């Protein structure tokens, strides 16, 4: 008996019971569609978050003071004074794995222009900060090394600040705003970046030369932190190790002493988030997988009923020359056809659903080819696995009894 | 009749063990059926005729004795070999037709050839059409089994039994579900097949049918009690003509 004939026979048997075939298929369709949609959503949100992280600067490295104790009392990071200007200069001059570094000092306060005011944080940074954080100037210009050297009272503002202070649409460049009674001249406006994945408004920001903030606002000589950028994301770890060496040397720490600073990278954050999202995806996929399993059991159930119902047909086929393995193959092919057709429809529906979600809910959904291949393979295996037992039962029937079965 | 024996049974016995009792369904049954014979096998229920039919049809193997079908010894054959043998040498006609539901006449008749890889799709179809035409259903090739009368369904079943050019046609109470008029029509068909040289074995409990066959074998309690040549074969067509005509 050749395979073509077996397919013909199985197809014929399926088409004789279209409604039942479809209902059986429905379990597989829903299972596969939900696996694909869930995985697409999981992968989509992972990708979305990764995109946002890389927008924030995926290769960003943050250096903060730490482990400073005064008389045995551990101090909070912002009041620690372990990071000095000399550290900044050493790193800037010596590190091979960073492309840019900026000191970071900041002060929160009220920004006032005329009758308008807004709460904001003013960040004291160097010109390299724009590259590190992936900001760019929309209008005006960035402050210069000269401005840093002279602690010039100039600033760059984000779009939220502009909207709050200049509601009438005035051009903010050249205007003078006041921060803690100190006048700052706006020399540039940042291009809008929107909210980041943590829900922080990246446009509510004021940048000024770090010297200005240190001398005129905070009256400190140390740095509250530093922000650097690794030349590439994958060099983040190397850069961290290098900076650690430089800082430990500068701070004359003995081998036994712990670091008096903390270095964290976006890469760490991004891989943490990635693994959380992978976990979430797996969970969603597993839940959807259960519905695929239930669909498979549906196939088994129907095939089982079908074998009983078609006992006489099986008896007839055997008496006119079908071997046990022909019957086995017929029922197995029926089960596999149901599950493969269901799988195909499921892939289409899952794909369509993911597309609709992206279109209507503006939620990123990324269909991975492997998730399609996986769910397809799983549902084929489901067909074989759950079709096997009923098919085996059919093949084992005694033709004498089967042909007279009532 | 020719000397060639299509079927030769030598001391066939078949025992079934039920609980701790042994039931002797067949005891030392021996007979031969030559090519072109139309043999009725008769017996009451419990006489062993079903077991004999299963044995003749290679569905069952005897406990003892030898069975040669078309010269081939069947007793020691395995399941698959017997399936192939049935496919090539036997045509079954059942009491309840056993057509596939929602399936056209032609697809039903093609079925045995589906299990024979030497037939191409076109050869299969050609054979099926020929076979249906020979039973007088040339105009109903694409009728589905549920759109046909009992007589028509049995004709389709006979066409299915003929399609593989079997060495023997085994009919099991083939007229049992039909009214007497339709029964006679089917018997006319069997007689025609007989006259064309087909070998037919017709198992029945209805003694009337034996008058249309060329030989009658009677079974009782698993033994052959009579094996008589019918020298006065009645014509089923004549009997059909004498039946009162239906009004419709």
Verbal overview:
The complex is a heterodimer of chains A (406) and B (248). Chain A is of the alpha+beta class and 406 residues long. Chain A folds into two domains: 3-52 and 272-403, no CATH class; 100-228, no CATH class. Chain A has helices at 3-15, 18-57, 85-94, 129-133, 145-149, 159-165, 210-218, 236-250, 266-309, 311-319, 324-360, 369-395, 399-403, and strands at residues 60-65, 69-70, 73-74, 98-113, 116-125, 137-140, 154-157, 176-179, 182-190, 206-209, 225-230, 261-265. In chain A, strands 4-5-10-7-9-8 form a six-stranded mixed beta barrel. A two-stranded antiparallel ribbon of chain A has the order 2-3. The longest helix of chain A is centred in the C-terminal third of the chain and has 44 residues, at 266-309. The two termini of chain A are 28 Å apart. The relative contact order of chain A is 0.19. The model of chain A has no long low-confidence stretch (mean pLDDT 86). Chain B has a domain at 37-50 and 88-242: P-loop containing nucleotide triphosphate hydrolases (Rossmann fold, 3-Layer(aba) Sandwich), CATH 3.40.50. In chain B, the strands form two sheets. A six-stranded mixed β-sheet of chain B has the order 6-7-8-3-9-10. A four-stranded antiparallel β-sheet of chain B has the order 2-1-4-5, with helices on one face. The longest helix of chain B is centred in the last third of the chain and has 16 residues, at 180-195.
**Count of DSSP-assigned helices of chain B:** 7
End-to-end distance of chain B, in Å?
42 Å
Largest interface: A-B, 24 and 27 residues
SSE order of chain B in H/E notation?
A: EEEHEEHEHHHEHEEEH
User: Helix coverage percent of residues of chain B?
Assistant: 25-40%
Average pLDDT metric of chain B: 92
Using the CA coordinates, give the radius of gyration of chain A.
Answer: 34 Å
| β-sheet strand percentage of chain B | 25-35%
Can you tell me the CATH superfamily of the domain at 37-50 and 88-242 in chain B?
Answer: P-loop containing nucleotide triphosphate hydrolases
The main sheet of chain A orders its strands as 4-5-10-7-9-8
> How does the overall form of chain B come out from the CA principal axes?
globular
